[in-house]
Amino acid sequence: MMAATVVSQMRMGTRWARVLWLHLFLVVVAAAVAAEQQVPLVLWSSDRDLWAPMVDTHEGHITSNMQLSTYLDPALELGPRNVLLFLQDKLSIEDFTAYGGVFGNKQDSAFSNLENALDLAPSSLVLPAVDWYAISTLTTYLQEKLGASPLHVDLATLKELKLNASLPALLLIHLPYTASSGLMAPREVLTGNDEVIGQVLSTLKSEDVPYTAALTAVRPSRVVRDVPMVAEGLGRQLLQTQVASHVIHPPVSYNDTAPRILFWAQNFSVAYKDEWKDLTSLTFGVEKLNLTGSFWNDSFAMLSLTYEPLFGAMVTFKFILASRFYPVSARYWFTMERLEIHSNGSVSHFNVSQVTGPSIYSFHCEYVSSLSKKGNLLVTNVPSLWQMTLQDFQIQAFNVTGEQFSYASDCAGFFSPGIWMGLLTTLFMLFIFTYGLHMILSLKTMDRFDDHKGPTITLTQIV
């Protein structure tokens, strides 16, 4: 009886051990897949001999977190105390191949200022593939090494700063990519980012400030295209045509002496008494869009869009935004105070206070809608006959430069569904690991055995 109990416990422990090793294997595989994501890192400095020539590495080598620290430590300890980090949303080494002057066409390069900075820099280093984890901790690493908190700046604030060569400073300049603008081709966006880099470097050069600069991204911009497998094999894929992309319309721009307000959406639909109308084609890319009533100054902006006829009447949509200075954050923040719909002498008000962000940024959200299933960011205090949905909404009413949006402050929260799924999965695996380890440690071997020459072992039942 005792032997049967022990055998049963050992079998149970073996079963849980197998389950435990299976989950550990899945965790390792998931980590390996995540490690395949890498981004380039370009470093250059106004000081000499900060980086030794790189030893030849095999093709496809990925720079790890520890290896990156060996490259950065000499530059941070011996180099300038002013460090610039140009952080782009997405970037891959293929972007330099596709849009750079790698074939001698310097006039067509989207990285002319970056290439010029690398040519003139006394010290430079290019790492084609850096592990995503190393990049995700780069800002924290630089902060610890310099002993200075990161300062998010743009061209306007950079000109007002007085940098000191002896005092450490960590300046973060965010650069958008196609995911944040959504309105321009990658070459145009990369060219605009390169111009920002050139203007920042020109400002530092005019002030004669020594610096070390780095350009990298949060995640890669190039992914393997998901082409469906067909029965004829991979050769058939070469004959497949690419799916036509969605038509991208230019944003609505209100100008007085210069562009003041930018507004864009992938889809702009409104409903009156549950009758829906798509206003996308009537709003974006229209030369004679009625913007009568629009207004702008440094602290208040109103974008007025008038359509006639719409639902048998003249309808005006007014986006009202305000910019205020908050001493706690020591910066200006904008808020869309309300959205008004004027029709037949009546006005419907929607509260849109969740559309907010720093005044130097634009605002982006996947859905701004009065429908509950679309997030319900448009809130009305009284029942309204009007409904509205803006898909892939983006707006900027302050610090507009040209016809391009600034870096977008997104409405998505930090804890996205993917993050919650990851946390719950991790906790579940940790529970299985703990339970399996407890089962293995609770196994007990026999310390007494039957002796056919002696008395039979008896087990006293414990109640």
UniProtKB/TrEMBL annotation:
UniProt keyword Membrane present: yes
Keywords, comma-separated and alphabetical: Hydrogen ion transport, Ion transport, Membrane, Signal, Transmembrane, Transmembrane helix, Transport
Molecular function terms, GO-annotated: ATPase activator activity; small GTPase binding; transporter activator activity
Transmembrane spans: 419-443
Gene name linked to the record: Atp6ap1
Main location: membrane
Subunit structure: Accessory component of the multisubunit proton-transporting vacuolar (V)-ATPase protein pump. Interacts (via N-terminus) with ATP6AP2 (via N-terminus). Interacts with RNASEK. Interacts with TMEM106B (via C-terminus).
GO cellular component, as recorded: clathrin-coated vesicle membrane; endoplasmic reticulum membrane; endoplasmic reticulum-Golgi intermediate compartment membrane; endosome membrane; proton-transporting V-type ATPase complex; synaptic vesicle membrane
Domain of life according to the entry: Eukaryota
Stated name of the protein: V-type proton ATPase subunit S1
Pfam families tied to this protein: Ac45-VOA1_TM (PF20520), VAS1_LD (PF05827)
